[in-house]
Amino acid sequence: MTRYQVFIKDYPGGKAEKAEFVLNFCKLYPWGDPDEFAEYLFALFDRNMDGVVDFDDFIRIESTLTRGSLEEKFKLIFDLHDIDKDGFVTYAEILRVFKSMDKLMRKLPPMQLSSEMRVNRFFAKMGRSSYDKLNRNEFLQGCCNDPEMVTVS
Ligand SMILES: [Ca+2]
Ligand SMILES: [Ca+2]
After folding, report:
1. How far apart are CA 127 and CA 143, in angstroms?
2. 113 Cα: distance to centroid of ligand 1 (angstroms)
């Protein structure tokens, strides 16, 4: 199946409304509580913020994930965490995404460190305070300092 056929199979109308997108994503994690993470994911896909994910939105993320450079993939991780899309990630934003990921995996063995501990460690390793905003380069640098960030993201 081509990517288009895969997309059309899930979304016969050729575009995904938010509720539909979240519902489909939730089917992938029947053991967890994925609603919140699905919303962040929807915002990541819906680059032009028109409230629907169409095939262009879909393929842009899909091709970055499958064929993008490391830098492009990092950019996606940054965008995912930049919930209000202001070009910076804050402690609170990273924590919200981490917590939503923990809920995604709720019924799997719990992470050894809580979300708070992981975000604290991320900021501590960079020598930054939890009040600081990080731009994309700083965030990337932080991910390099703390590779576990990337694997959990
Ligand atoms: Ca869109
Ligand atoms: Ca932000």
Report:
1. 13
2. 35
b/e 60-79 (16+ beta carbons within 10 angstroms → b): ebbeeeeebeeeeebbbbbb
Q: Encode pLDDT of 16-34 as tens digits.
A: 999 999 999 999 998 889 9
User: In the numeric block, which tokens belong to residue 32?
Assistant: 């967890």
Residue 83 belongs to what domain range?
A: 70-149
Instruction: Calculate how far, in angstroms, residue 47's C-alpha sits from the geometric centre of ligand 1.
Output: 6
Give the environment of ion ligand 2: residues with CB less than 5 A: 82, 84, 86, 88
- C-alpha 73/C-alpha 117 separation (Å) is 25
Is there a single domain that holds both residue 145 and residue 90?
yes
Tens of pLDDT, residue by residue over 31-48, are 889 999 999 999 999 988
Residues 94 and 134 both lie in one domain? yes
Helix (H) or strand (E) holding 16: strand 15-17
